[in-house]
Design goal:
This protein is an alpha/beta fold. Helix content is 43%, strand content 14%. The structure holds zinc ion.
């Protein structure tokens, strides 16, 4: 059997629906291809050939690169958490210890909150990733309410059977500390163990895309080359899907904070994070 041109194989392999089809042109190509598969070899080949060339002549109908992938984004904290300390401070079991259900998160010196930052970046990510074909779910629906607990944030990713999950944060370290870091799970003899290796791959992909897309430096205060591994975070310990946290920078550092307050820079962050997820999911 004659091999198909490599370029055609690549296009059909990477973008399945471009060859299988969801629009009218693509669907016709898909039907033609199925017909070709069941038609004797002596049958005229003109119909499928024609349909295929039509499908490939319509690049706007090509499915996004993340078609079929589910991504859960956890915008850290919640803007209403401060209003209900009883609920937020309730202790929950994260397997290696008991921790508060959630925290209020940090803020910049001018009171731009981490909850607002993570909410904005996460919603930008939703738009970008959905445009690339992914199914995306957030762990909270607004930035004015309380919770959910860190245990529930992990459960949402598990229930969605996410191909990848990411929790978006900004850190609250001393003012001279700056730069970003990624946090990945460690084995804890628990439910996260089977996805520790994939989470590490995800973390490295996001680290590389983040530094390329934002130009922000690696953290000068945590981790090695912006990579940190922890076994005390409920959002990671309880995850059964590949998951990481990113601390996009230090909100208490004037340089990092100035960037976070700029919507154009938050868009750069969102694109960079989406790129990191995509690199991991397409690898
Ligand atoms: Zn946080």
């Amino acid at each position: 059997m004659r091999a198909l041109p490599a370029s055609l194989l690549a296009a059909c392999g990477l973008i399945a629906t471009a060859c299988g089809g969801t629009d009218s042109g693509g669907a016709a190509a898909g039907q033609a291809a199925r017909a070709a598969a069941t038609t004797p070899a002596s049958a005229p080949a003109s119909a499928p050939t024609q349909a295929r060339s039509q499908a490939h002549a319509k690049p706007q109908a090509v499915a996004g690169p993340l078609e079929g992938k589910t991504i859960v984004i956890d915008p850290g904290h919640n803007g209403g958490n401060y209003r209900n300390p009883t609920a937020i401070n309730r202790k929950v079991n994260v397997l290696t210890k008991w921790k508060p259900c959630d925290t209020t998160g940090t803020e910049t010196n001018s009171h731009y909150t981490e909850a607002a930052f993570s909410w904005d970046v996460s919603n930008r990510m939703v738009k970008i990733l959905e445009a690339r074909g992914a199914k995306v779910k957030l762990t909270r629906t607004d930035n004015n309410s309380v919770g959910p607990c860190i245990t529930q944030r992990a459960a949402i990713g598990n229930k969605a059977k996410a191909d990848a999950a990411i929790s978006v944060h900004g850190d609250g370290a001393p003012a001279t500390d700056h730069g970003f870091h990624v946090i990945m799970p460690k084995k804890i003899n628990g439910p996260v163990d089977p996805v520790v290796a994939d989470s590490s791959r995800l973390g490295i992909a996001v680290r590389d895309a983040f530094t390329k897309g934002t130009g922000l430096p690696y953290s000068n205060y945590i981790g090695r080359k912006a990579l940190d591994y922890r076994n005390d975070l409920g959002g990671l310990n309880l995850s059964t899907v590949p998951k990481i946290f990113i601390e996009c920078g230090n909100m208490r550092n004037a340089g990092d904070a100035a960037k976070f307050k700029d919507p154009a820079f938050r868009q750069r962050i969102a694109v960079a994070l989406a790129d990191g997820l995509q690199h991991y999911l397409k690898a």
